[in-house]
Amino acid sequence: MNAGIFYKTEQDMNQAVMSPYTSLRNLYNQLFIYAGEVRSDNTTFSWVPGNSKDMTSIDNFGDVLLSDNSFVLGLWNNSYHTILRCNIVLDKIDAVPFTDPKLKEQYKAEAKFLRALTYFWLVRIFGDVPKVDKQLSVADAYKLGRASTQEIYDFIVEDLKFAEANLPATYPAVDKGRVTVGGAKGLLAKVYMTMAGYPLKKGAPYYALAEAKALEVINMPQYSLVSDYKALFDVTKKNSTESLFEIQYKKGGTSTGSPWNNDFAPRFSNREVVLVGDKGGFNAPTPSISDAYEKGDPRKAISMSDGYVSVPGGKFINEKYVKKYYDVSFSGSDNDNNWIELRLADIYLLYAEALVRQGKQQDVALTYLNKVRTRARNSTGGSADILPNYAPFSSDAAFLLAIENERRVELAFENHRWFDLVRTERAKAVMTQEQKEQNGFNPSAWNDNMLLFPIPLQVIQSNPEKIKQNPGY
């Protein structure tokens, strides 16, 4: 459809705003999982079809992650496709008459939030990337060089501040799932935390910004921790009081259902786990994430399993798999699960970390760390004698390691782990040990260039004068 003649009414613009929301599914189905989880020490590919170096090199730091990797190209192309859809909204909307000027600003704010979210992924994965702030032809887009990481983060912050100022706190039921002011504030807190750490290393002033923004979210009355951790991932209880922003999925449509039932099933399981068997293994938990849970932590059984019982035979098969996104109402590859991108427990833990990193209010930080543990303790499968509240820590270093591990198990398989390790400069220590144990990796072969993915070869070939490869690739 010709964009020049289509966007004429409020209804047209509402359709345009829905477009980038829909586009996010192409990223969250698999690609962001590979970047946020498989790249980390949380998950691995327990099975790959054929001999796919494209998959194994994302997971195995002993393999060279090549610039012609199809998944890396998919990350880049689908991200910029989403950004294009946001820019169409922003380019067309001012010419469209609205009966309510606030609604026009809301639509702009939604597009800017989605653009900021996508750029936040891009800059953490690739570093310097082209800044596209308007609708461009393919020919013009190819003329753009890479903007600095600092410039991209400034752009993200600018978009999120606009979103924060123009988004509603809630929506009527028919619009449930659209981003709210809480989502904008929550993402901005996360962006500030990342800017404070590696690679920008802006330090204390940005930890203070993250602290303040996280506290704004915490003080919003519409948000609270769901009392049962298991309920967070119940497909009948989506968009809960804990959720700041979820990627919406709906089974039964055309590419609107989520695929994780089958993708996360253990490799070669023949209907023991899902009705459609003989797939899976694309996001298998590692031994180290299995061991990271304290004894009796109910979050483990809700989030993952160490194996399954074969049928026939009744033999236990030691193949770990993610359970967090299992839809019990339907066991095929078209499911109702949403992907929770931002939730309150994440904000609690970021808030606690920001306080500790500034050397202040350790009692308050401890309170929020323990709130997350208390909810876990009281969840399905929990009991009073597990996950005791942490006492005051002897050092900030010990406190930060406790927060790191709490983030790992609380947010397991939600695409946070790799980026937490990078921003805190813990990736080298954690990943060299993990890779040594799992893949025979020589820790002396570590190179910090591994913290970024390569720029796709196809992108460089389109504009070799301006698009240069990341170091080490």
From TrEMBL:
Location(s), subcellular: Cell outer membrane
Pfam families found in the cross-reference section: SusD-like_3 (PF14322), SusD_RagB (PF07980)
UniProt xrefs under InterPro entries: SusD-like_N (IPR033985), SusD_RagB_dom (IPR012944), TPR-like_helical_dom_sf (IPR011990)
Lineage: superkingdom: Bacteria
Entry keywords, A to Z: Cell outer membrane, Membrane, Signal
Principal location listed in the UniProt entry: membrane
UniProt key word Protein biosynthesis: no
Segments forming domain RagB/SusD: 315-473
SusD-like N-terminal domain residues: 12-193
Assigned protein family: Belongs to the SusD family.
Protein's name according to its UniProt entry: RagB/SusD family nutrient uptake outer membrane protein
